[in-house]
From TrEMBL:
This is Uncharacterized protein. It comes from the Bacteria.
Length: 115
């Protein structure tokens, strides 16, 4: 399995029900026997930023084998980012209305330490 994280854009006045997203994503991963959610939280653009500020995301840490298809099926919004490592190299992709972008070099994605 691989460690990845998903960044779902947070919007001040259009916050999706993140609990429903977590549950639906975990169910899809379980049904596909593809992995599981490790945790989640807010990813801010700067240390002094508040949740919901421009550039803030809801981050979901996942260990999985297949994810792009599940996120698209579950209605992840345009602007969702997928960050992952492959053979030790960090990559990222963005979701638009046309679908997922080609993989681009990422910015230091790390697997969290085992607990």
């Amino acid at each position: 399995m691989h460690f990845v994280y998903v960044k779902v854009p947070q919007r001040r006045h259009a916050t999706p029900d993140l609990e429903d997203l977590h549950n639906a994503l975990q169910l899809a991963l379980d049904q596909a026997q593809a992995g599981g959610i490790l945790g989640w939280g807010t990813s801010l653009p700067a240390a002094e930023a508040a949740a919901g500020a421009p550039g803030s995301f809801h981050r979901i840490d996942i260990e999985l084998q297949v994810l792009r298809e599940a996120l698209s099926r579950l209605g992840a919004p345009a602007g969702t980012e997928l960050h992952y490592t492959q053979d030790g190299t960090a990559w990222q992709q963005s979701l638009s209305v046309q679908g997922w972008s080609a993989p681009m070099p990422g910015s230091g994605t790390h697997r969290p330490p085992d607990r």
